[in-house]
Design goal:
Helix content of chain B: 40-55%
CATH superfamily of the domain at 43-298 in chain A: NagB/RpiA/CoA transferase-like
Strand order of the largest sheet of chain B: 2-1-3-4
Distance between the termini of chain B: 47 Å
Distance between the termini of chain A: 63 Å
CATH topology of the domain at 43-298 in chain A: Rossmann fold
Shape of chain A: globular
Shape of chain B: globular
Radius of gyration of chain A: 26 Å
Largest sheet of chain A: 6 strands, parallel
CATH architecture of the domain at 43-298 in chain A: 3-Layer(aba) Sandwich
Strand content of chain B: 5-15%
CATH architecture of the largest domain in chain B: 3-Layer(aba) Sandwich
CATH class of the domain at 43-298 in chain A: Alpha Beta
Number of strands of chain A: 12
Structural class of chain B: alpha/beta
Oligomer: heterodimer
Number of strands of chain B: 8
Radius of gyration of chain B: 18 Å
Strand content of chain A: 5-15%
Strand order of the largest sheet of chain A: 1-10-7-4-2-3
Number of helices of chain A: 22
Chain lengths: 471, 255
Amino acid sequence: MDTTSPRFPANVREAFSDQQLQRALSKVPHGFIKKRADARDRLPEFDQLRDQARDIKNHTLAHLDLYLEHYVDKVEAAGGRVHFCTSADEARATIIDLCKGLDASTVTKGKTMIGEEIDINEALEAAGITPVETDLGEYIIQLRHERPSHIIAPAVHVNKDQVEADFRRVHSHLPPDRVLEEASSLVNEARQVLREKYLAADVGITGANFLIAETGTSIIVTNEGNGDLTQTLPKAHIVLATIEKLVPTLEDVSTILRVLARSATGQEFSSYTTLSTGPRRSGDPDGPGEYHVVILDNGRSRMLDTPFQHMLRCIRCGACLNHCPVYQAIGGHAYGWVYPGPMGSVLTPSLIGIDKAGHLPNASTFCGRCEEVCPMRIPLPSMMRHWRERQFERHLTPQTVRWGLGVWGFFARRPPLYRLLTGIGARALKTMAGKRGRLNSVPMAGGWTKHRDLPAPAGKTFMAQWKARGR
Amino acid sequence: MSTTHPRVGLFVTCLVDMMRPSVGFAAVKLLEKAGCTVEVPEAQTCCGQPAYNTGDRRTAADLALATIAAFEPYDYVVAPSGSCGGMIAKHYPLLFAEGSPERRRAEAVAAKTHELISFLTDVMGVTAVEAAYEGKVTYHDSCSGLREMQVKAQPRRLLASIKGLDLVEMGEPEICCGFGGTFCVKYPDISNDMVDKKASDAEATGAGLLLAGDLGCLMNMAGKLKRRGSKLQARHVAEVLAGDLSSPAIGEGEE
């Protein structure tokens, strides 16, 4: 996917001037946050489970090659095929080849962020194949020609009345006087429209929440049941996954599933947890005739054995987005690539380069709420700081910032000079403020005073007063 | 170490030093009242966070070493800030290679560094203060204090010991105010959105005074409240606990 991350500040300005977006964002945070907190409170061992989940993924990543080999053997033994792809191009080509081999004209899709990463819809359309999104949120943004703004709630930036208008525009074969104001009537209408698509599809593409080495199984977790219809009805099921989705055993997955839904939506468990192992066997009542797993690397193996390896534990629950005050302010599109919020601010530079995504790890106050809620205990703020260090080493930090920091560092290393400077500064600001006690504009501090006053110093520094008191 | 009169090195913090010395004096008063001998090492400047959070590890490590050297002689290092306290207690060791002498020194200083209010309650066993305040206040949990230094109940416990003080909680006391050090000038519009929400939340409590334990957050919130024309005032919690409200509230004039 093309990125607009380099123009993050402009994206932010657009986000603030988009009133529909701001209206949608104002409703988001509280639902997710409260539900997660309640789910955590109902499970006393929640934090222990987080430790276990972290350890399982750390172990898997330390032995990734072995588990991948085992996984492939098991998939093949069940009659499926695994296709390793190093790049987005390769993954696109592999999927298009598979679809063409099946004479596919329509493909139904479950929700997959990796599909976004490789622009699979655009590739399918270019090959004359119609992709149909079946997750409600994904379906809505497909109608709107937009991108997901959240990894588990892709249309969270869209308001209900906007969806109603889109449905009336696109579903023009339905009676125009139908009532669509309630969310439930929108869901029912989408179900009705999509049902025909499931039956007509030649191939179903889904993502995977986990790949299980022990059994060669892929797992998807959904709330709408759309994934099941997507993967069981067509001639072939293509699973689109990445290397870090791997988990050793069913037992391990059970542990991680206990923290996944609770962190994501506050549910004990998602409505549907669907396990797929190979194609339809003789005697099975249903299932796809072919089962393919496309496993994409796209830069992830480069993160192994680096400070960014922690990020490969991520299970895409979205809790860090939901709890991030920056995400709450600007929404997901401003981040400019596939993955928004704190997890995106760490992952995006890893996958597309810090030279392009440099703003993202900087656009954080390091408030630490993301790490506090992460079910996999990923140290997101430390990794954002690591990115800032890489930028500084590579001289990607803006010159003015480096210069300012250099001057400040020069004085801060020399306490007597520093005292002289702070003394002068405090007196000057105090004089400028006069009796008002604050300033509404200060040269070179426009970033501060654009939106808020600068409280003026008291006049004499603490150190000067302390000394004057003879202490 | 004297258990009755520990020697405390006060890490004043660069913001308190330059912008609001009254917080430093309130800290000294509270520490002395709790039985500490307070000294203020001359060699201190800044904990180094601006460099550390901009990716300049070398400058951060230089400033860390200077701070470590200045504070090694004390029984405890105490800062009227969860953010600067957290920098010393949680991040200083990470600036030096494992097993190096600098790392050992950083770890030793880190282990005896505390945020002011939690030091008073958790180390010195203070359970009440002799201060007076009449009216409603609200308290903002600064991020580093809350999440790095586990400061949450301690200030509330001490505030509860003040007769006449009524603490009214915000809807979201734990959400970031949008200061974030250099963040607030690098991304002013995002920061503004965050501090605006915080100001609305604080105003909705009906309190007359907004308290917090970190001057960076307080200057951000007070600056926004003033810009909005709000009547809500802001002070460091130490000033109220020390019973010293002689300085005008943050950003208030003298008249």
